[in-house]
Structures are given as structure tokens and as C-alpha cells.
Amino acid sequence: MSILEEKFNEFEKRSKEAELGGGKVRLEKQKNAGKKTARQRIELLLDKGTFIEFDKFVVHTTSDFDMDKNKITGDGVITGHGKIDGRSVYVFSQDFTVFGGSLSRANANKIIKIMDTAMKMGAPIIGLNDSGGARIQEGVASLAGYADIFIRNTKASGVIPQISAILGPCAGGAVYSPAITDFILMTKQTSYMFVTGPDVIKTVTHEEVTKEELGGANTHNSKSGVAHLIADDDAQAMMMLRELISFLPSNNLEDPPMKPTNDPIDREDEDLQEIVPVDPNKPYNMKDIIETIVDDKIFFEIMPLYAQNIIIGYARMAGKTVGFVANQPQVSAGVLDIDSSIKAARFVRFCDAFNIPIVTMVDVPGFLPGTIQEFGGIIKHGAKLLYAFSEATVPKITLITRKAYGGAYDVMSSKHIGADVNFAYPTAEIAVMGAEGAVNILFRNIKDIDEKAKIVEDYKQKFANPYKAAELGYIDEIIYPKETRKKIIQALDMTKNKSQKNPQKKHGNIPL
Ligand code: HXC
Question: pLDDT of 332-354, one tens digit each?
Fold first, then answer.
């Protein structure tokens, strides 16, 4: 064998070793747990054959606990870059078969390197998390590695999209890197996130809870609001990440990518004409309106299981990404409460940071009254949404379909807080409150039922319509429901070169 052949053989041997991760037995265990391997996940995520790996031969540098005799090439994380729909993304994929995917100093350095490169090149970073947390054998060196990642997550926030998939355990401080990123996706039954696990909880608070109940995908998608997306398994998760990325620009200086469509921009939908019930107390599904008006009826909902009284998500109109924020009359009459305010506020801020126009659909009876809400701080949480809409300088289009009452009228991207185009359906009711409530306050001394009913009717005639607001110029145009798609696309076109800046400052102080 020539010297050259020997060198090539050694390269191949080492390369294969790295690709084997923690070995066949552990890979089999990973498969039996219903999970793909770290490398398979990358293959599913990226366009075929586009992955370019960095730092394949990195090993850890610890000798404590006899670790110098236990080195695995790659050290538990696969890092590099590749393409999604032909656009660059940076990826790290933790390999649970190597020391439980735990974070060593060397392993953290690999992640840091691609985070820094992603920032330099202005491309999104996607973390595929499957890790037992800090590498126990390395102690504080591992904690330092985490902190080095946290600070980079923070600096990258609002500059490049950062997306985390949780595909296995994610415990301790390890949850905080994903928490700083823009989106968290979790897989059902195979992933969990918590700051302290069931055993610690039992000792400290005497509560008994399973891992799944405490921090499984359902818990974080429907109860805590920590996660934004839920997938049945790894394969579906990777498809969802691809779809999410397709709506987003690569960085904050770019516009989102265009996706040409054959869906006519002036398509009218007769179905919409009667979608809003005449009876103001009758619910309807706001998602039906969104799905009807967007390109090819494709709406990618974010946080579909959490605070369902508000809907957020992405779609395209005339090929361009649009972020939707919409009250959902079908759930708690679309009322604004703590959870829905926080959910929508963070979404609005993401859209604003990444040049995504916001379409707001309004049917809101107001803020939810009650001690639970007040003690929970609805004042400061509701203010988050008000703040987020007020500071957003991207194009903002608002459509009031039915109720827009009280403070919630102001908050839901009203003209007064900077919306560019405000539409209303003829069915809109824009007032301080509903007719019955208003009459009960203003005419509390009138006991005669018939007399009261007449006053309510009078109030409705006067105020439960869009015309008062239109008279004052707070609504730019009253439109037929069937022409919603066309009208919103026209408004998006009108605002496409919008250039607005907030006053210079270090940063604002959103009520947290
Ligand atoms: C080193 C680890 C490890 C870790 C797991 N392994 N976690 N090695 N450091 N943190 C190794 C195991 O020794 C084992 O090695 C292999 O990974 C698989 O682990 P198992 O326990 O067999 O797997 P499983 O039964 O599926 O349980 C997974 C697990 C459990 C729930 C994650 O391993 C576990 O509880 N690990 C410790 C979690 C933890 O406390 N981490 C520190 C959190 S604190 P072999 O050789 O047998 O295959 C933290 C601080 C961060 O992260 C602070 C940042 C601010």
C-alpha cells in the first residue's frame, strides 16, 4: 500500500468512526426509543446532499473520571451548514449516543463556532436538541460552555432567526438556550424540558409528577406556552422546521423570500359574505377567514394549542410572507387575557424584527375581567401587546370583522397606535363597550324592561357599527367580506416601501 493510500485509508477510518457516534448498540437504543439519529435528522432537515460538516474530528480534553481513555470522535454534537429550499442555514444536532449528547467544553465550542459563523453570514441557526445537559465529568467547564451559548443566543436575537427543536431530554440550564431562541418545536412522547426534574420536585415540594406531565410536548404546547410547535415524530418535526424557515428571511436586513403563486390576487370569495353571524353573541371560526384569503389557503399556525382565543401564524399573500394576529371568537369569545396577550406580543415583535408585515383581524369583546387576571398582572401583560404593536414599524394592516370594544380596540393594531391601513366589515361594532353593558351603566336607574330594550336598540343603531369610527377617519375603508383578499393585498402593496423609524435609543423597556 502506498503512503498516500495509507493516509487516505486512515482518513476514511476516522471519518467512519465519527459517523458511528456512540456505537451500534446505543444507536439501536436510540432507534428503539422512536428517535432518529442526529445524522438522520440533519438529512431529513436539509436539501438532499447539501450538508457540510465542521469539526468532525473534535474530541473532548478532559482526563478526570478516566475520560482520557474514553474519547469519541465528534464528541456528541454534529455541526455544520446546508440548505433549505436552496437557502443557507446553520445546524447543530446533539448526538444522544455520545455521552448522552451532554455538553462538554469541546462540544460547546463546536456549537459556538457555527453560531458565530451563522451571525457573520446572516443565516438562520437551527438547534436539534437531544442531550442530558451539562457533561457531568467536566463540571464548571461545561457550565461555561452553556453560558457562552446563552450570550450568543441573546446577541443573535432579532438578527438571525433562531429555531430549536427539542427531540429528547432537555433539562437544567439546557432549557435556557432554546428559551431565548425564537421558536421551540417539541416531538410528542420523546421530548421533554424542565428546569428541575420529577425527583427534585418530589423532594422539594412533595408533588408527584411524571416527566411527560411535567415537561412533555403537550404540556409546553398547551399549558406553559414555552413551546410553539408540536410534531408527532422526528420526521414530521424536520418537515415542519423546513416549512417554518420557508416563511422567514435569512436575517433582519433581508425581506422574507417570495413564493410565486397562481392564486389570483383579486380572487373574491362569496363564502365570506355571510361568515360573520348577525347575532353578535354567535361564534364563528376566524381561521376560516384567514384560510380563505391567503395564497393557496395555506396557513402555518404557531402555538395552535395555547391561548386559543388568539390565533398567530404565517401565510403568504401575493407570494409574500405575512404574519397574522387574529382574535378567535370561537374560544372565549376572542377575549384578550394574559396568555393571549403574551402569545401575540412575542409574535408581533418577531415579525417586526424580521420585516414581516402584520395583518391583524379583530373581533374582540375586551379584556377578560376577574381577580385571576388582575392578580396575575393583566395590566402589564396586556401592555406587552400594546407596546409590541405600537413599536412595530413593519406594514400593519387591520381588519375589524365584528367587535372592537374598549381598550382592546386600541390594542389590536388600531390606527392610533400606528396601523397603516384599517379596514372594517359592515358588520363591525366599534365602541367603548357592548350595548347592554353601556346602557346598564348610563341608565342604571331605568328599571322598565321595555324602555331599557329601546335604549339598547338606540345605542346599537348609533354605536354598534363601523360608521362612527369611519366618520372620524379611524377606519380607512369599509369593505365587503368577499373582497378581503384583494383589499389586503392592495394594502400590502401600498405599504411595501414603508420606511418608518422609532426614536434612537439603546432599547425600549417593554413591560416584562
Ligand atoms: C455525562 C451523561 C449525561 C451527562 C447522560 N449521560 N447524561 N454523561 N453527562 N449529563 C450518559 C449516561 O451516562 C449514559 O452513558 C448515556 O448518556 C445515556 O444515558 P442514560 O441515563 O442511559 O439514558 P436515559 O435512561 O435515556 O436517561 C436520559 C437522562 C439521564 C434522563 C438524560 O441520563 C439523566 O438524567 N442524565 C443526567 C441529567 C442531568 O442531571 N444533567 C445535568 C443537568 S444540569 P452510557 O455510557 O451508559 O451510554 C445542567 C446544568 C446546565 O445541565 C447549566 C447551564 C446554566
Answer: 999 999 999 999 999 999 999 99
What's the CATH architecture for 3-247?
Alpha-Beta Complex (3.90)
Is the CA virtual torsion 500, 503, 507, 509 positive or negative?
negative
Any atom of ligand 1 within 6 Å of the Cβ of 168: no
Measured distance CA(306)–CA(492) in Å, rounded:
28
Task: Give the CA count within 13 Å in the CB-facing half-sphere of 423.
Answer: 22
User: Helix 435-442 crosses helix 449-463 at what angle (to 10 degrees)?
Assistant: 120
- Enumerate the domain spans of the chain: 3-247, 270-428+465-494, 434-464
Q: What is the average per-residue pLDDT within 44-66?
A: 94
Q: What pLDDT digit, counting tens, does each position of 143-193 carry?
A: 999 999 999 999 999 999 999 999 999 988 789 999 999 999 999 999 999
Q: Which of 25, 94, 130, 136 to mutate to test the pocket of ligand 1 (most atoms within 8 A of CB)?
A: 136
225 catalytically annotated: no
Ligand 1 close to Cβ of residue 299 (< 6 A): no
CA distance 423 to 289: 14
Residues 336, 367: contact at Cβ < 8 Å? Answer: yes
CA distance 432 to 440: 13
Beta-sheet pairing, 77-84 with 125-129: unpaired
Among 225, 407, 418, 437, the active-site one is: 407
**Ligand 1 centroid from CA 13, angstroms:** 28
134 near 102, Cβ under 8 Å? Answer: yes
User: Which residues fall within 8 angstroms of residue 400, CB to CB, at 6 or more apart?
Assistant: 362, 363, 422, 423, 424, 425, 428, 430, 466, 475
Asked if residue 439 has pLDDT above 90, the reply is: no
Task: Quote the pLDDT of residue 463.
Answer: 83
Tell me the C-alpha distance between 251 and 157, whole Å: 10
One fold for both 3-247 and 270-428+465-494?
Answer: yes
Q: Ligand 1 within 6 A of 194 CB? A: no
In sequence order, what are the residues at sequence separation of 6 or more whose Cβ sits closer than 8 angstroms to the Cβ of residue 32? none
Q: Does residue 407 carry a catalytic annotation?
A: yes
171 lines ligand 1 (CB under 6 A): yes
Each residue of 68-82: pLDDT tens digit? 888 999 999 999 999
Q: What is the percentage of the chain residues whose pLDDT exceeds 90?
A: 89
Q: Which atom of ligand 1 is nearest to the CA of 134?
A: 52
The pTM of the whole model exceeds 0.90 = yes
Topology (CATH level 3) of domain 270-428+465-494:
2-enoyl-CoA Hydratase; Chain A, domain 1 (3.90.226)
Q: Whose CA is nearest to atom 24 of ligand 1?
A: 100
- What string of H, E and C letters represents the secondary structure of 149-171? HHHHHHHHCCCCCEEEEECCEEE
